[in-house]
Design goal:
The protein has 310 residues and is of the alpha/beta class. It has one domain: NAD(P)-binding Rossmann-like Domain (Rossmann fold, 3-Layer(aba) Sandwich). 41% of the residues lie in helices and 12% in strands. It is globular. It binds ligand LOHRUJSQ and NADPH dihydro-nicotinamide-adenine-dinucleotide phosphate. The site of NADPH dihydro-nicotinamide-adenine-dinucleotide phosphate has 30 residues, from helix 1 and helix 4. The site of ligand LOHRUJSQ has 19 residues, from helix 4.
């Protein structure tokens, strides 16, 4: 009996083969556990062998089925070879979760070209390479007619992006890459729909994942205050992201493609951290314009440049 308690029904993914990039830690590890709990054979992909081995062993101890493949998703030849080996070993890929990713905080003006390229390659190019190879090699293995004859759709793909709807100040490289991934999700969804392939994305907000541990102390201190800016007043959990991913992979989402599900506690809806008064009529925001602004608030409508000139 697995120790992972999924919200979904037993054997939902029985007999399916799923790839999870970044499956050696954090959100990817959690997704891999849930997919295995639901009956899939899970292939964990990442760069660090020890992490992959550990998670594969955890899944096996839980009664699930997992294997792993060490690969940098930015390495085109490596990705091609890996997908070929996995298709050869398992006959197909039914599910791909493009979860591997990461970035480091930096002001935009201080980003080096090398750092920009490292993050864009990790969060955009790598996901593209994985999706393209899974598509190409699945199509080579099973023609569309064979897929239909077996009553089986093509692989379902879920791309993990991030809450970048208002830009990503402090992480510009990642915001640009994730926005690219969201756009790629829509294009792939349309181009590959005729093959029965669905492509969707999940955009996590602030998640209390193991990945947060990779940041330095100042960043960790910032993270401890982030819940205040989330309407649900807490960080999300790895399993809340995993549930959204498993929903999109499942037949429950059979008529969904090209979509992005946000798992963010409402954060992008209320970014300014203004404390909501206990009684919502205690401050009127209508007509928030210079001409009608109470005198005590006028100073707050001035930019520093305006103030210098007065
Ligand atoms: C309202 C909600 C908003 C949602 C916000 C979303 C919050 C997201 C949270 C998370 O994603 S959680 C954690 C996910 N995990 C990570 O981020 C992992 C940690 N990050 C990394 O491993 C790196 O950032 C990386 C660039 C993604 C790794 O790529 P690579 O292995 O190729 O990098 P390196 O070889 O280490 O470096 C290449 C190049 O990049 C620059 N650089 C890398 N790290 C830093 C840094 N900490 N500070 C400054 N510059 C960095 C640098 O130019 C490196 O080149 P060299 O200087 O080493 O020659
Ligand atoms: N936690 C959060 O609040 C949020 C996270 N996200 C995103 O969710 C995803 C999972 O993050 P999280 O679990 O928190 O963080 P982790 O750092 O734990 O997970 C990232 C995983 O990706 C793997 N990885 C990184 N680069 C590569 C690469 N080039 N090739 C193969 N694997 C790679 C890492 O393993 P290894 O280094 O061994 O290769 C690691 O296992 C990431 O894309 C992250 O940016 C998005 C929004 C918010």
């Amino acid at each position: 009996m697995s120790c992972y308690e999924s919200i979904f029904r037993d054997a939902l993914f029985a007999g399916q083969v799923g790839l999870v990039t970044g499956g050696g830690s954090g959100i990817g590890r959690c997704i891999a556990h849930e997919m295995a709990r639901l009956g899939a054979h899970v292939v964990l992909v990442g760069r660090t062998v020890e992490k992959l081995e550990r998670v594969a062993a955890e899944i096996a101890e839980d009664g699930g089925s997992a294997s792993w493949w060490a690969c940098d998703i930015r390495d085109e030849a490596g990705v091609k070879a890996m997908v070929a080996e996995i298709v050869a070993a398992h006959g197909r890929v039914d599910m791909l979760v493009n979860n591997a990713g990461g970035q480091y905080p930096s002001p935009l003006a201080h980003l080096s070209k090398k750092g920009w390229e490292a993050v864009v390659a990790t969060n955009l190019t790598g996901g593209f390479l994985m999706a393209r190879e899974v598509f190409e090699q699945s199509m080579q293995t099973f023609s569309r007619r064979e897929h239909r004859a077996q009553g089986r759709p093509g692989p379902a793909i879920v791309n993990i992006i991030a809450d970048m709807w208002r830009g990503m100040p402090g992480m510009a490289h990642s915001g640009a890459a994730r926005a690219g991934m969201q756009n790629l999700t829509m294009t792939a969804a349309v181009e590959w729909a005729r093959f029965g392939i669905r492509v969707n994305a999940v955009a996590p907000g602030w998640i209390a994942s193991a990945g947060m541990e990779t940041y330095d102390e100042p960043m960790k201190t910032t993270i401890t205050h982030l819940h205040k800016s989330v309407p649900l007043k807490r960080l999300g959990t790895e399993s809340e992201v995993s549930a959204a991913v498993c929903f999109l992979l499942s037949p429950a989402a059979a008529f969904m493609t090209g979509q992005t599900l946000s798992v963010d506690g409402g954060a992008p809806l209320y970014p300014n951290q203004f404390p909501i008064p206990a009684h919502s009529n205690s401050l009127a925001f209508n007509g928030f314009h210079r001409a009608t602004t109470p005198a005590f608030l006028s100073a707050h409508l001035q930019s520093p440049e305006d103030a210098d000139q007065t």
